[in-house]
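look at this stuff:

>
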Amino acid sequence: MKKILITCALLIISQSLFAAAKFKTGTLPLVDGVYNSTQAVITGRNPVFSWEYSSVTSSYTIVVSSDPATFLSDGEIWNFVGATTSVNTINFVTRNAYNSNGTAGTLSAGVVYYWRVTIYEDGTSAFADGQFTAAASVASLQREKFDLAVDWNNPFNPSKGQYTIFRYGSRDRDRRVKLRVYSLSGDLVQEWPEQTVLKDAWYSQSWDGKNILGETVARGMYFVNLVDVGDYQGITRRIAVIK
């Protein structure tokens, strides 16, 4: 029995010594679910940063700056130190809202910001960089579980190069969702890949008024539908196309 305990202890020590902070291969640091997002909504909320790692990490830092490359102190607007916990991390994905500690500078719509996340474990570290553009929004996502809204250009005229933007998100938990556009008769017009949305992040999807064949749709009323593919709950909003 003693021999077995000693062997197990040595194994644990060995694993600890060789543990290293690593991001999951092929993943990128995201803002509201998008790498280098151009639609990080800041109206009445703060964007959510997230990243995925392949090893246990004990802590992390997030630096947000208006400086595109150097993250110098004169461009820095937020420097946050956090710990990886079961609350902010699910399935090796950690998420942290901007200004979660109340010390960050104010974000301005239309401005590009640059950010870096550094993860730490057992004296090792790894970092990843990204950027995001802050965006204003007239949409409001208020439902208790998850919600969908048409932000602007409703109605819109795709024949003149106009497009509309849908905003959606989950307030209670991470969800697997699917976004589609239907005609009044119930025919599928357009759809986007199924995806996992993180709790409290806002997702944006533009629609140029074209169907799945790339053809501009006829004028009229359409329905945009967001469905949770796990429990089949859905939300539908109207969108008008004019010519």
